[in-house]
Write a structure and sequence with these properties.
The chain has 311 residues and is α+β, with helices and mostly antiparallel strands. The chain has ten helices and six strands. α2 packs antiparallel against α3. The longest helix is centred in the middle third of the chain and has 23 residues, at 187-209.
């Protein structure tokens, strides 16, 4: 039924119309509690009609309490597609590069990224972060093209290709010849390796230099121990101080590698310095790691230090 204002009411309208109770409009002054309106002389208040929100406004990004647009990189189609394809470098690029990826992970704004996923190049394995499953076996393994001093001469394809490129450029630069001592080690091989150290060095000595089974980066196929092969291949302990070690320390990040256990970082990593132990994280993350002056993956991703096992 249409409600007419006082100006439009018919002249024969009765002034003895029934009185209705209505809500007091906001801001109207009242002279006494309980006063009644003379509705016959006052127009009936009508709620204003609020027009619907335009579709474009309804689709605006959410804004957090600080007025900063809340963006979820995981909703980007390029990221979704790259994750599905298993293309980790494309995922990082979809976030805007290594530094942006790191910032999103630390800020908790990357729900599609897990630092526990052993399939991904950004997985973090340490004394507080065992592999899941504990006996994880990576796919896509291949033999390395450099000289190897043990039968553990396999890596994931992306890490193997990067090692080959790095070794070739190192040789071309006149910095010697790079070889590999250990690449991928299975859970069972790590059992034998670790308990061999326990037998020779005791539990404490073994924990300082070797990972327990299920806690080793070697098990994901992205870590390797490199050696100098300029005059026959030496052992890992002889790598420090060589021309190869100096070149790798300066250039490894350009190929997606970091030196995982640096001097002075034992309180964070739980391991003695190992200049021979390289970890592949991909070129974009390695560049962000290098440019940011980081020295451990724990620091890079804002994780707690892992000097000791939980039990």
């Amino acid at each position: 039924m249409e409600i007419m204002s006082e100006a439009r009411q018919p002249r024969h309208a009765s002034r003895r119309s029934p009185v209705f109770a209505v809500a007091l409009p906001f801001g109207l002054a009242v002279t006494a509690l309980g006063a009644l309106w003379a509705l016959a002389d006052a127009p009936v208040p009508v709620e204003p009609v609020v027009p619907p929100m335009p579709a474009a406004a309804a689709e605006l990004p959410a804004v957090d309490l600080d007025g900063v647009l809340a963006v979820d990189p995981c909703s980007e189609q390029t990221v979704v597609d790259a994750l599905a394809a298993g293309d980790d470098e494309a995922v990082v690029a979809g976030f805007g590069g290594g530094a942006a990826f790191r910032e999103a992970v630390i800020a908790g704004n990357a729900p599609c990224i897990s630092l526990d996923d052993p399939v991904r190049t950004w997985v973090v394995v340490n004394k507080k972060r065992p592999l899941d499953p504990i006996d994880y076996v990576p796919e896509g393994m291949t033999g390395v093209s450099v000289r190897a001093t043990t039968l553990s001469d396999q890596l994931r394809l992306d890490a193997s290709d990067a090692l080959a490129a790095m070794a070739s450029d190192l040789d071309a630069a006149g910095a010697g010849t790079l070889g590999i001592n250990n690449g991928y080690r299975s859970y069972n091989l790590q059992v034998r390796n670790y308990y061999g150290y326990v037998e020779s060095d005791g539990q404490e000595g073994a924990d300082a230099s070797s990972a327990r089974p299920g806690y080793s980066e070697h098990q994901i196929g992205l870590a390797m121990d490199v050696v100098s092969c300029s005059s026959g291949c030496g052992g890992i302990g002889a790598f420090a101080g060589t021309a190869e070690e100096a070149w790798v320390t300066e250039h490894a990040w350009e190929y997606g590698f970091i030196v995982r256990y640096e001097e002075g970082m034992t309180g964070t990593t739980g391991y003695i310095p190992e200049p021979w132990h390289l970890r592949y994280i991909g070129p974009q993350l390695a560049a962000a790691y290098h440019d940011g002056g980081f020295h451990t993956l724990e620091e890079f991703f804002g994780l707690e230090a892992a000097p000791d096992y939980a039990h």
